[in-house]
């Protein structure tokens, strides 16, 4: 790629929920125009989200330039734009990394061990908690934690994963247990429903439960997200940078979640919207207006200067 406007920044990588989208789940006109402006200035674009591809509505993707790279499931599944080197035009991902079936079985068992009291979360319960999550005698939630397996083509929930928590997902397979489950593909991400707000303390508790076999993070809500060691949003950003022959120091990353921290650290400029938790804002080089105030549009204006009529 040639030198571009924007202080030498050559790639803009955006988180989706809470960053690119407003609180209504929309790409606003101002943000859509800013993405197009960045593209026209020669800045490559990427969207790196915790969502699987099937749960990104066409109304959202249509507002993002066709030249953008899309990395799903915390960066484990990457689709290159049509016409990019290696893109097959059939919609197949160019990168898929995930847990092997035996690893998934061990993770589910570890989460089950936490349910039985190995790890307990001393935080308030939230609506949608799994049945049986009433506080114990010491005031701590008694569980249970439960898992959902985020595959490329579907999500498999394992009871007692609450149906309410998955009611808006597409292609959901519900199972009473993991027994007899046959997996013929890597599992990019495992969701752990804790019945609590998943702040850094809860993420740490889940990390202790699963140990070194997975990396725990969160993007908000009642889920802790488990990804294989050596993966995550920063690895997706590295992969996209390599495809574009862009040094990560020339990349800009913006996100609001704990799962965005490694990506913000890797990029030459890491930004967070004002709605991000304090830990993310403190880690960012630049704090923007909130996602409801056009965070990404403000970032593009910071890179390229204000729009002139």
TrEMBL record:
Record keyword Protein transport present: no
Cellular component terms per the entry's GO annotation: cytosol
Keywords assigned by UniProt, alphabetized: Hydrolase
GO MF annotations in UniProt: magnesium ion binding; phosphatase activity
Record InterPro entries: HAD-like_sf, HAD_sf
Keyword Hydrolase recorded: yes
One Pfam family, short name: Hydrolase_3
PANTHER family per UniProt: HAD SUPERFAMILY HYDROLASE-LIKE, TYPE 3 (PTHR10000:SF8), PHOSPHOSERINE PHOSPHATASE (PTHR10000)
The protein, known as: Cof-type HAD-IIB family hydrolase
């Amino acid at each position: 790629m040639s030198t571009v406007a924007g202080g030498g920044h050559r790639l803009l990588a955006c988180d989706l929920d809470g960053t690119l989208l407003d609180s209504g789940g929309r790409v606003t006109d101002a943000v859509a125009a800013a993405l197009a402006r960045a593209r026209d200035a020669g800045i490559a674009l990427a969207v790196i989200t915790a969502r699987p591809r099937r749960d990104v509505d066409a109304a959202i993707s249509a507002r993002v330039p066709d030249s953008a790279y899309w990395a799903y499931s915390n960066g484990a599944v990457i689709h290159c734009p049509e016409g990019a080197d290696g893109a097959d035009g059939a919609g197949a991902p160019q990168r898929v990394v995930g847990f092997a079936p035996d690893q998934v079985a061990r993770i589910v068992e570890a989460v089950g061990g936490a349910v039985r009291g190995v790890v307990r979360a001393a935080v308030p319960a939230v609506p949608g908690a799994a049945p049986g999550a009433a506080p114990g005698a010491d005031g701590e939630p008694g569980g249970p934690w439960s898992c959902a397996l985020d595959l490329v083509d579907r999500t498999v929930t394992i009871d007692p994963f609450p149906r309410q928590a998955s009611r808006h997902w597409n292609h959901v397979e519900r199972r009473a247990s993991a027994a007899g489950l046959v997996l013929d593909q890597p599992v990019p991400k495992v969701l752990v429903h804790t019945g609590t707000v998943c702040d850094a303390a809860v993420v740490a508790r889940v990390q202790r439960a699963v140990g070194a076999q997975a990396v725990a993070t969160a993007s908000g809500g009642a889920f802790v997200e488990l990804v294989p060691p050596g993966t995550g949003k920063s690895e997706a950003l590295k992969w996209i940078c390599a495809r574009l022959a862009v040094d990560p120091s020339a990349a800009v990353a913006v996100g609001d979640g704990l799962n965005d921290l490694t990506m913000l650290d890797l990029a030459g400029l890491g930004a967070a919207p004002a709605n991000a938790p304090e830990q993310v804002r403190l880690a960012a080089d630049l704090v923007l207006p909130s996602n409801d105030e056009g965070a990404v549009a403000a970032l593009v204006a910071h890179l390229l200067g204000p729009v002139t009529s």
